[in-house]
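Researcher: Good morning. I'm working through a list of sequences from a screen, and I'd like to move beyond sequence-only analysis. For each chain I'm collecting a predicted structure so we can compare shapes side by side. This is the next one on the list. No need for commentary yet; just the structure.
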Amino acid sequence: AIFCFLLFFHKLIYPLTCRQSIIYKIYAPKYTFCCIFSLISYELSQILPNYEKILYNHFMNDLFEKTAASVEIYKGKIITVKRDEVLLNNDKQVYREVVEHLDGVAVAAEIDEKILMVKQFRYPAKKILYEIPAGKLDTAGEDILLAAKRELEEETGYIAKKWQSLGYIWSSPGFCTERIHLFKASDLSYKGQHLDEDEFLDFELIEKNKILDMIGQNIICDAKSVAAIMKAYKL
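Model: Good morning. Structure tokens for this chain:
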């Protein structure tokens, strides 16, 4: 309750009681009590910068689900499947099936106003898809930029001098733990493609305007590729 009270004063009262405020000049004598608590809240925020987030997570958000138990039901080469017993805010228990997967990287690479795309057969989709160069991390702690550089070179043979982070997306947060970290790459030069022994794909350069049409026509329908291209070029 005390933290909620302090948060209220820090967010609402403190801005009104600063010395630059006309409200301060007129009403400060009458609202000394408010000023004291707002200043206390301000000092607390300096000592513990994330206290508002802690307060929100623990006292004001009823959407969180707590894991009561977890059972591993399958472990494969690239995924682990678990069945978790989860406690809801209303004290009811439900089950969540979770696919654990290492994070991935994806690269929107540009050469002369064209975007580098790969064509690859995706077995679950049973079709050849257009995608930007991408892949999973080799280990959980791998540097994501180094992983992005590796995947771009392996799949297309290109290396880039300029890199820009585009943030990340959840591939399918309803059941999967994988995040895909997106990058924009430019100033490219060709070094030589070297695919994994079980990897078969082609790559091609496609004009930006055509890319937009291909997305609109659902020819490019890979989620990470659409997200990265839209973020990189704001199409």
